[in-house]
Amino acid sequence: MRRLAHLRLAAMLLTAGPACAQTMPDAPGPAYAPAHPLGSELVNARALAPFLAKLTQAAASTPPLSIVQIGDSHTAGDMFTNGWRKRWQAEYGSGGRGTSAVGRPYQGYLTWGVTARQSPEWMTNALFGKARVANGALLGLSGFTATAAHAGAWLQLRADGPDFTFDQFGLCGLTGPNQGSVRITLTPVSPGAVQTTSLYSFAAAVPGSACFNLAAPTPSSAAAITTLDDRPVQLTSWSSTRSAGGVIVSNLGVVGARLAHFTRNDDQVLALELRQARPDLLVVAFGTNEGFDPSLKLDEAETVLRTQIARLRRLIGHDVPILLIGPPDAASNRPEVALPGMAETVNCGSGWYVPGNLARVRQLQIRLAQTLNLGFWDWQSAMGGPCSTMAWVAQGLQRGDHVHFTVDGGRLMGNALAADLDRARANPAL
User: Fold this and answer.
1) Structural domain tally of the chain?
2) Is residue 5 helix, strand or coil?
3) 153 pLDDT exceeds 80?
4) In whole angstroms, what separates CA 79 from the centre of its chain?
5) Is 112 helix (H, G, I), strand (E, B) or coil?
6) In angstroms, rounded to a whole number, what is the distance separating the alpha carbons of residues 197 and 184?
7) What's phi and psi for 301, nearest 5 deg?
8) Are residues 126 and 236 located together in one domain of the fold?
């Protein structure tokens, strides 16, 4: 079914003009045969029915409806998820900012709606990238663990506006015989209200993990964490939420990561944090880095996807709908990445190609969504199909790398997914 909103978006992006004319293909690629009609980007929406049924009552939900998205740089950068978050929190109410990595795990770390700060003592272990230490601190849902071993090390999470004030604050970390303690202080929005403060110890007889939750009697604008001694404190995630009403969209991404890297986090830590985040919908958004790998082995990618979906379902402990988000349309001007000789590679002109392995990853995800009872959202189709990246870059909606999105581009895509899910909620037969 072609939708009016989709046609308007396509018209805006693909209308010929001076900016677009410079990026139109100089040698058309092969004809595109979509796996499903353009304008129908949500596949197997029935798998999401239990979550979609809850949306009607989201404004009065206690606790708020929780959406948790794991993924790569598209998730980490929060352009797409912030567009989705703003759309649904305006529609259904804000449940707070949700779960995120503690502090500022890397330079350029961005969190829409809240601002994180930290003292310089903290060291980070990561799921992937330069900060990765193979035998370092265990990792959980966020893909980052922050460690300090000196008294007085501090972190702060502050709401950027009234939509992200909170009355519930959660902190998760590693426990063990030599682990230290922290003080958590919540600053109330009202100047005359009393701060909420509590002390928590991560010391335990055996290594493990723990999550602590602090409730405030009135809305808070900031949370501060301070270490109390020189024993190590290792923190894996924190959360700021409201006790009732609205929707939470938590983005937990690692730049450069693939789903295979998600195997590096610890089962016990991950299980605890999934229970802490209590997702009503789990979103798995990988595929771009897989698709840009010229040595991709599709059978291995299928094994990883099947194994990790089964693992997530087992660790959550109950049936939670899962939505796969396919990679967006993206292009490379490096032949060793694009593989121009591959049948699935699309020539966009001006030296840019949509790598054939992106199409192969997307086709795999669509097939497994049907097999494993997952929803699937076709991000490339929502953009307009292969080589639509050329127009998106020309319009300032995608960056010059032809991969990542600007704020406006992320907003459009987040709105498109939210609209698709709203339509599926209104029409269960989809």
Assistant:
1) 2
2) helix
3) yes
4) 10
5) coil
6) 6
7) -60, -40
8) yes
3-state secondary structure of 9: helix
Q: Residue 340 is encoded by which pair of tokens?
A: 């121009």
Boundary (domain end) residue, out of 241, 265, 297: 241
Tens of pLDDT, residue by residue over 332-390, are: 999 999 999 999 999 999 999 999 999 999 999 999 999 999 999 999 999 999 999 99
**DSSP letter (8 states) at residue 46:** G
Nearest to 103 by CA among 151, 138, 153: 153
The C-alpha angle 155, 156, 157, rounded to 5 degrees, equals 135
What's the CA gap between 184 and 329, in Å, rounded? 43
Q: Under a CB-based contact definition with an 8 Å cutoff, are residues 327 and 361 in contact?
A: yes
Mean pLDDT of 2-11: 40
CA distance 147 to 386: 43
Q: pLDDT digits over 214-252, tens only? A: 999 999 999 999 999 999 999 999 999 999 999 999 999
Residues 53-76 have pLDDT tens digits of 999 889 888 999 999 999 999 999
The contacts of residue 166 (CB under 8 Å, 6+ apart) are 96, 97, 159, 216, 219, 220, 223, 240, 241, 242
Q: Position 424: which residue type?
A: A
Instruction: Give the torsion through C-alpha atoms of 420, 373, 322, 304, to 10 deg.
Output: -120
122 and 163 inside one domain: yes
Q: Pick the closest to residue 420 from 14, 11, 98, 55 (CA basis).
A: 55
Burial category of 151 from C-beta neighbours within 10 Å (exposed 0-12, middle 13-18, buried 19 and up): middle
Q: CA 72 to CA 66: how far, in whole Å?
A: 20
Q: Within a 10 A sphere around the Cβ of 231, how many other Cβ atoms?
A: 19
Phi, psi (deg, nearest 5) at residue 341? -85, -10
pLDDT at 40: 60
- Cβ 321 vs Cβ 51: under 8 Å: yes
Is 357 within 8 Å of 296 (Cβ atoms)?
Answer: yes
**Does 136 lie in the same domain as 79?**
no
Q: What 3-state class would DSSP assign to 129?
A: coil
With b for 16 or more beta-carbon neighbours within 10 A and e for fewer, the 185-198 pattern comes to bbbbbeeeeeebee
307 and 170 in a common domain: no
pLDDT digits (tens, 9 = 90+) for 63-110: 999 999 999 999 999 999 999 999 999 999 999 999 999 999 999 998
Number of H helices, E strands in the chain: 13, 18
Last residue of a domain, one of 241, 256, 286: 241
DSSP helix/strand/coil, 356: helix
Instruction: Give the number of other CB atoms < 10 A from CB of residue 275.
Output: 14
One domain, residues 85 and 114: no
